[in-house]
Amino acid sequence: MKDILTLKENSVSLKYFIVLMFIAFSFAVAVRMIWVDQFSAVDSFRWNNEIMINTNDGYYYAEGARDIINGTHQENDLSPVTSPLSKLTAMIASFLPISFETLILYMPTFFGSLLVVPIMLIARIIKLDQVGFVAALLGGIVWSYYNRTMTGYYDTDLLVVVLPTFFVWGVLFSLSHEDSDSFLIAPIFALMAMHWHGGMTHIVNGVFILTILYTLIFERRNLYYYKFLSVLVLALTTLPLVVKALLMVALVASYHLLKAKLSDKIVIAITALSALIYLIFGGAAWVVEILNSSYVTRALHAEEMNLSLHYFGVVNTVREAGHIPFETFANRISGHTITFWLSVIGYALLVFRHKLFILTLPMVILGFFALQGGLRFTVFSVPFMALGVSFLIFLVANFIKTLFAQKVQNYAKYTFIVLSSIAILYPNIKHIIAYKVPVVFTKEEVKVLDQLKKISSREDYVLSWWDYGYPIRYYADVKTLVDGAKHSGSVNFPVSFALMNNQVAAANMARLDVEFTELNFKKPCGPSVECMLKYSKLNNPNELVKALNSKNLQLPQKTRDIFVYLPNKMLNILPTIDLFSNLDLLSGKAKKRPLFFKSTSFNDNGVSINLGNGIEILKQGGKIKIGNQETQMNKFVVTEYDAKGVLHKNVQTINPSSPVSVIFMKNYNQFLVLDKRLYNSLYIQLFVLENYDKELFEPVIMTPLAKVYKLKK
Q1: What span, in angstroms and rounded, lies between the C-alpha atoms of 223 and 263?
Q2: On the CB side of 447, how many CA atoms lie within 13 Å of its CA?
Q3: What gap in Å lies between CA 151 and CA 30, rounded to an integer?
Q4: Which of 63, 74, 139, 496 is the most exposed place for a label (fewest CB within 10 A)?
Q5: What region does 282 belong to: left with phi over 0, alpha with psi -120 to 50, or beta?
Q6: Which residues pair with 234 in a beta bridge?
Q7: pLDDT tens-digit readout, 50-75
Q8: Looking at residue 647, what DSSP letter applies?
Q9: β-pairing, 615-618 with 608-612?
Q10: Are 316 and 486 in contact (CB under 8 A)?
Q11: CA–CA separation, 676 vs 661, rounded Å?
């Protein structure tokens, strides 16, 4: 059987190998430039003469890099100045003669494309350079991996697969060459991977544990494996980096210099000592974490643990978790369901033929875990599934070769390889062309934040939803209450409450939340709501909610200004925002869901306006039909901006006792159908209608895309 699976192909020369690697890298970069070509002429996507990035989390790391470069980090601003990505960006910015915007835009393009390098190096271990080349072409651009490393996707993902794949290569290289000079390769990449992203600890430890099992099953008499494990295990401990480095270098030097003098018993003793150090300094804790509440387990039980389930950007929170359709799972790993199954077959054959490849299983299993844990995990299996399908292609090509006369055998073989390679690449390139991800904020929206930066202080707060937290902090250089990492239920409640309730309650909540957030930095008192209860001496959180509706509520001393940022795009997520505060805090039970419907596709037949979804405005009598029920509208409002950007409103009060109002935002060509509570909410009143309480708020920046108000109290 192994003879059938043997590809009789020797390694190409180093020069030719480097050329192939450069071609694969260039291909991955070129494909990522498709997005740039699609949007380079879109002026609204540009800021400071460059296209803006397309991921919210990117602004978090950009803030850290900016503050490192400018030396503007201050206490409690949550700027990630210690983040490896922010540090790397700041370092590169110090010597590359390009703008900061250009740097963060293209870092994913080049760093993400580096995945082709370890893929090809892994294939070179088994002298299958051409297999590695085809695998690199696919792996560098496959569906899910492209999505997380495309141009503009400035995030830790740009190296989150590259580094552990290099680590796996280091392990395979050392064990296949049996040369102590290579012992430090895997530990170095292990340290880099774990430092880059905390979640990589599980991959590194998983490969380590599997290497132990592999050694005990297949190589238990091979002292070389024990030597390698004794060095690698030191990198996985929680000892200080300098201590780990010194121990590893000393151990490698000992193995190199005393090769002939170290008896079997001494090597085993050293390995056992290293294992003991591992268990004491980190290993045991890691096992306990896996059993209790690991990165993987948290994703499996995300709903039970009440975690936020939006998209990947932080270490200890699993985003995009949940079941995904098998077709989506297969497409993200290989680009097509057929390619996926061929990849699985090829990978199984590759492992059967080269059993050392069993050590790649932790990354493959983590990728397959996406079926339960969420689509974000698929990227980890990409390198090895790409190797699998490429291996299968060359196996079949070798078989096809035997069917032809000797003169055309190579022609037949490489024709099949080329056509098969095109076939597996095509679905992914097709996806990439169609994957037209917009930038996070348009130029006009950024202008608002840039203007806010000029009228605010770095100690001031901006109240808005967490989706916009990072861009607000980056462009306006202010503080926020919630962001892409800080959005648990306890911190979301006050912000949601402020946005979805009346102006008095919103103003009181905003001031309380900001002041207690700052107080928590100096003297922790728990979540903001608990701090508010202690401050107000109320035992019942529902009493606090009632108290917030009073203009006479005693508030903490004002220490900084608060701005409210309300973008038009927030309309799309109002029902989601409402979920976080529309509940009884004592029982946790949700209250009645509000009526909210936005229609941008409607039909006016003269007698009625059909808004879709079973909702119809009946012009005669000022009625609205929702399903089978008809009722008069409370208010029918038309808003319209004039040539100077001033908002005008035409308000018709039809039946003050009706719970339903309708707003037609003429410039946006959209209808809003909403109940009384939502109609009176801070967001609707301040953004849609510009009806602000002059005692509480003052407008500071007013545009159709985003509006900013300043809290007076």
Answers
A1: 10
A2: 12
A3: 10
A4: 74
A5: left
A6: none
A7: 999 999 999 999 999 999 999 988 77
A8: E
A9: antiparallel
A10: no
A11: 7
Tokens 């076939």 -> residue: 423
Structural domains of the chain, ranges and CATH numbers in brackets: 178-311 (no CATH), 443-579 (3.40.1380.40), 596-703 (no CATH)
Both tokens assigned to 537: 């001496």
- Identify whether the C-beta of residue 152 lies closer than 8 Å to the C-beta of residue 144: no
Using DSSP, state whether 640 is helix, strand or coil: strand
Judge contact between 437 and 54, C-beta under 8 A: yes
Residues sharing a CB contact under 8 Å with residue 600, sequence separation 6 or more, in sequence order: 668, 669, 670
3-state per-residue secondary structure call for 19-85: HHHHHHHHHHHHHHHHHHHHHCCCHHHEECCEECCCCCCHHHHHHHHHHHHHCCCCCCCCCCCCCHH
Digit-coded pLDDT (tens) for 333-342: 999 999 999 9
8-state DSSP, 709: E
Q: Is the dihedral of CA 245, 247, 248, 250 positive or negative?
A: positive
Query: Which amino acid type is present at position 348?
Result: A
Contact between residue 387 and residue 347 where contact means Cβ atoms under 8 Å apart? yes
Give CA–CA dist 110/444, Å, rounded: 29
Q: CA–CA separation, 553 vs 575, rounded Å?
A: 28
Amino acid identity at 577: I
Residue 307, CA distances (Å) to 275, 313, 324, 494 in order: 35, 14, 18, 17
Considering only CA atoms, which of 318, 361, 312, 386 is closest in space to residue 147? Answer: 312
Return the C-alpha torsion angle 149, 154, 156, 159, nearest 10: 40
Cα 599 to Cα 120, 611, 612, 626, 639: the distances in Å are 51, 6, 7, 13, 15
Hey, what amino acid is at 269?
Answer: A
Neighbouring CB atoms inside 10 A of 535's CB total 17
Tokens matching residue 169: 């290569």
The band of 507, judged by pLDDT with boundaries at 50, 70 and 90, is very high
- At residue 27 the predicted structure's pLDDT band, cuts being 50, 70 and 90, is very high
Q: Are 60 and 483 in contact (CB under 8 A)?
A: yes
The 3-state DSSP class for residue 459 equals: coil
pLDDT value at residue 293: 47
What H or E segment, with its residue span, contains residue 670? Answer: strand 670-675
